[in-house]
Amino acid sequence: MSDFDLVIRGGTIGTASAVFDADIGIKGGVITAIGKALPAGQSEVDAKGKLVLPGGVDTHTHIEEPRGGGPTVNADTFVTAGASAAAGGTTTVIGFARQERGGSLTEAVAEHHERAKKSLIDYSFHMILTEPRLDILQQEVPALIASGHRSLKIFLTYEGARISDAEALQVLATARRHGALVCIHAEHHDLIDFHKNALLAAGLTLPKHHAWSKPMVVERECVHRVCAMAEALDVPIQVFHVSGAESAEEVERAQKRGLKVWAETCPQYLVLTTEDMDRPGFEGAKYVFSPAARSAPDHAALWDAMRRGVISNVSSDHAPTRYAGPDGKTAFGLDAPFTKIPNGLPGLATRMPILFSEGVVKGRISLQQFVALTATNPAEIFGMAPRKGSIVVGADADFALWNPTRRVTITNDILLHGSDHTPYEGMKVTGWPEATFVRGVPVVQGGKAVVAAGHGQFIPRGAYEMIKPRGVFPGPFNPVDGVAV
Ligand code: URP
Ligand code: ZN
Ligand code: ZN
After folding, report:
1. 333 alpha carbon to ligand 2 midpoint, in Å?
2. Which of 226, 257, 258, 447 could serve as a FRET partner for 106 with CA atoms 20 to 30 Å apart?
3. Distance (Å) from CA 437 to ligand 1 centroid
4. Model pLDDT for residues 418-438, shown as the tens digit of each residue
5. What's the gap in Å between 268 CA and the centre of ligand 2?
6. Which residues crowd ion ligand 2, with CB under 5 Å?
7. Which residue has the CA at smallest separation from atom 4 of ligand 1?
């Protein structure tokens, strides 16, 4: 009887700290040995010439999220999203359970658990608060955090989702009291509205005018504001989708003051620009997402911020809407004003290959930095380490076998998602994952999903050190607990 159910033999393992040749032994879905010349397993995978990298952890994914009130729908289910994520080397996602105004968060979380049961890959949830009433903050949130939902998400823009600064402060205080991380969509709502109204009045309604409605200052101001709120209440936060230089500067300023402020960016902010929204016909609609795509100098600033650790996480912000059909980006016609185009793009499958190709292959980041940004850091920031995000004895056997020299032209059909398009159609990348395993079981192999629906498990997240408050306030008073410090 072998010690191992599976041995991954002869590959080059990449972690956030080292790159080395070794075999991996797996038993019961867990890595139980890493070493040279491990004894034979019950089954074996030949990984010679391949990189064996930790399964990606994508901590910002809108999967099968209901969209009340309009004709457009999220293009993925947990089945297609899991296949797509694994096709691109990702093995764990954090999605969103969203409270609707007037509704219960507990019910929203329970409903999302039902949807996610069919997931192919492992998952966890952030909880979106759209109406942080006292009953929700005092009763529902603490109970949900205790049951493993250890992050909250708030929007400071978007009608129907946004909350006020006063409400955001209550959410931050609640997170501090109960040990949760708050993730923030930071854009200045009224400033966007002012721009939108002026653009509509001037007849400037094309997809590219989406970017005109939210110049960088809209995001930079709000990132500054949320960092100030986090500082005043001594609460760790993660700023979502930092899109360019000015927001990264605000994050760095906060970090230099010692704050626990983490930031993510996404591939779309590293390779797309505002010009993409100006593609012929209505094609620009495929590039309407928020914050808007920026410029080449912003790309350079974000790579620099990643290299220096200011940005520590690259997520997809996967938020797919089909292009065609009555529920798609074109639901309101091919000449619809930008205000009617649903925001968001599909990005689960392309997140890691684009970062690998543009980052590692082009020499902008090391392989270790790639692993840190796509797997190890997100797992640590969101309380899933060491179970997820690394190749280490005792961790779940989540990894992908990468062919680091394979040249791939991205086409929609290889991404396995439910969307009818990818904004990266025709883009050439070098490096692609050829097989992806979740807890020792192949999920995607040779570009095809090979696991049954329901293989994915919910990953509950308990209390963890990283998000403990610092115990430092700007003044002599702790306003969360109402005591002098
Ligand atoms: O445009 C985007 N990013 N849509 C998804 C929702 C969000 O803002 O994260
Ligand atoms: Zn957002
Ligand atoms: Zn998002």
Report:
1. 25
2. 226
3. 28
4. 999 999 999 999 999 999 999
5. 13
6. 185
7. 344
Under CATH, to which class is 56-378+462-467 assigned?
Answer: alpha beta
343: CA distance to ligand 3 center in Å? Answer: 9
Q: By CB neighbour count within 10 A (0-12 exposed, 13-18 middle, 19+ buried), where does 204 fall?
A: middle
Token digits of residue 297: 């100098």
Mutate to test the pocket of ligand 1, among 59, 60, 61, 62 (most ligand atoms within 8 A of CB): 62
pLDDT over 90 (residue 1): no
pLDDT score for 485: 94
- Asked if 33 and 4 count as a contact pair (C-beta separation under 8 A), the reply is yes
Binding-site residues, ligand 1, Cβ < 6 A: 62, 185, 289-290, 317, 319, 343-344
Q: What does the alpha-carbon distance between residue 70 and residue 200 come to, in Å, rounded to a whole number?
A: 21
- pLDDT by residue (tens digit) across 92-117? 999 999 999 999 999 999 999 999 99
The DSSP letter of residue 396 is B
Q: Whose CA is nearest to atom 9 of ligand 1?
A: 317
Residue 69 has pLDDT above 90, yes or no: no
Whether omega before 291 lies within 30 degrees of 0, making that bond cis, reads yes
- Under the banding of pLDDT at 50, 70 and 90, the label for residue 48 is very high
Tokens of 252: 């760095």
Atom of ligand 1 nearest to the CA of 240: 9
The CA distance from 229 to 214, in Å, is 22
Pair of tokens at residue 415: 């991404």
pLDDT at 73 over 90: yes
pTM over 0.70: yes
